Amino acid sequence: MAWYDEAVFYHIYPLGMTDAPKQNNYEVSEHRLLTLIPWISHIKEIGCNALYIGPLFESVGHGYETTDYKKLDSRLGTNEDLTNFVAECHKEGIRVILDGVFNHTGRDFFAFQDIKKNRENSPYRDWYCNVNFGGNNEYNDGFSYENWGGYNLLAKLNPHNPAVKEHICDAIRFWVSEFDIDGIRLDAADVLDFNYMQTLRQVANDVKPDFWLMGEVIHGDYSRWVNEGTLHSVTNYTLHKALYSGHNDHNYFEIAHTVKRLYEMGGNRPDGLKLYNFTDNHDVERIYTKLNNKQHFFPAHILMYTLPGVPSIYYGSEFGIEGKKEKYSDDSLRPALNYADYKDAVNTNNYTKFISALGKIRQNTKELSYGDYTELCLTNGQYAFSRTCNGHSVIVTVNNYDNDATMNLPAGNATEYVGALSGTKVTANGGSISVNVKANFGEIWIPADIANNDTKPVELTEEKVEETTAEAVTNVEPAEPATNVETNTEKESDKTVDTEQPTESAKPQKKTTVPTNKSYEEMTVEELQEAILERMRRNGPVTDQMKKDVTDNVYHNSLVNWIKSFN
């Protein structure tokens, strides 16, 4: 067992949270990173024991156009500040992982600047992919090069160059010796060369015991990246999408089907794929913004904290803040927050109280980290599963409907269960338990003999339930209660429910065509998806799973990269 097997992450985008200038003049004017030190106690208070923070190193603007891998971004402070910050985290028992932006650099990076100066005579001309001195670009460099995501601001490194590999590996060793970090999140891991990542894994194995290597991957078979030779984990964008759309559509079949597929992908073992689970992050809209019914914040996070994987909360989302993605800016997703405005939130803010309770339940309940996953009940509006370890079964129940529901579930070996969120006790009868699941809420039922007596029920103040939007109402399928679920307003149904397949929308789908007069960068998400499917059809049969992988990917830059990979 490693520390990350029981991790509950907090995620910070530091340039945004500290309100750093949008452009870097490479002068240290303020030690902004140190302003985050008061947040460390908050991170611990809400039940997190690990921090993912980044990007941190010297860059031009948003942080992913690296200028120097061994220097803290001047807008945040000095290397000494980062050393002190990590040390303060460690004092509170919080592990720290940083962003590793190893696929590309910014144009101010020393190797790129040398190519600009010395052109064909530069010893670094092979540090980047497809440098062509017969080409040009919008910066009028007199040469062209491969970039990331269509942005020449991000010059793509050549992963096959031994000097590049050694420079990156040396940076990792430096980060451990200088800052004492505990792991790295590889940016854009889904486009990194696999041999390159295997080299990074070897370094990770050498620099520190249990050093964690996690990668940003959006679509595809996650087991390609998560294995003994490559990465320990990747970002679970598949579950992220299901968590909000499954609630907006009142369709727990989508979530359960996603979980089942991911669990099978890991060999039907709890340690097969320990994916990095999240409801939102610095690249996507806030979960509170995405949810049509804001009360679904509660069941969505119950699932995120209890399903197989490593849970993560993005800074500010524990307060229920909004964040809508804009066409040309991610600033609203990466806001400045003042600690003084939120220092008492765990006592006054319902969402913070709730996230704090989930974090502590997760840390105190080993079954949620190591337990087998078994689906127990599934309808459009209700979902139950167990996490079983060493003979103890923790049962999770959620309800996305506006009425309470009664669920009759197998009780495992326990004779009594305690609701960790409510403190309610239920007794098993004939090997099963009958539990009430509150509307737009859920519960984590822990066997009484292993329940933590120090865990107090979460007390939420009454709030007005926000109405579901008209658009959401038109997308809601009629409920199909299973034989072990009944709502308080309707009789139990005898209808059998197929729990193997997700329900499909009955709405006719608009046909998307691929424009011939647009570049990939100009295409919409739907046009890019159709273009990718067309390319797949040319190569052979397209399975339902392949179609789902494409349609689940709603991230423009990722789709552009995907379609270009066919060329």
Task: Explain what the structure shows.
- Residues 464-483 and 489-509 have low confidence and may be disordered.
- With 567 residues, the protein is an alpha/beta fold.
- A hairpin with a 5-residue loop joins β18 (416-419) and β19 (425-427).
- The protein folds into 4 domains: 8-105 and 156-369, TIM Barrel, CATH 3.20.20.80; 106-155, Alpha-Beta Complex (Oligo-1,6-glucosidase, domain 2), CATH 3.90.400; 372-487, Immunoglobulin-like (Sandwich); 520-564, no CATH class.
- The strands form 5 sheets. The chain has an 8-stranded parallel sheet. Strands 14-15-16-21-18-19 form a 6-stranded antiparallel sheet. A 3-stranded antiparallel sheet has the order 6-8-7, with no helix packed on it.
- It is globular.
- The longest helix is centred in the N-terminal third of the chain and has 18 residues, at 162-179.
- The chain has 17 helices and 22 strands.
- Side by side, the strands of the main sheet go 11-10-9-5-2-1-13-12
- Overall pLDDT score: 89
Radius of gyration: 24 Å
User: How far is the first residue's CA from the last residue's CA?
Assistant: 43 Å
Q: How much beta, percentage-wise?
A: 15-25%
Number of helices: 17
- Based on CA inertia axes, which overall geometry fits? globular
Largest sheet: 8 strands, parallel
Number of strands: 22
Low-confidence stretches: 464-483, 489-509
**Regarding CATH, which class of the largest domain?**
Alpha Beta
Estimate nothing, just give the exact number of structural domains: 4
CATH topology description of the largest domain: TIM Barrel
At the fourth CATH level, what is the homologous superfamily of the largest domain?
Glycosidases
Category by helix and strand content: alpha/beta
Q: Can you tell me the CATH architecture of the largest domain?
A: Alpha-Beta Barrel
Helical coverage, percent range: 25-40%
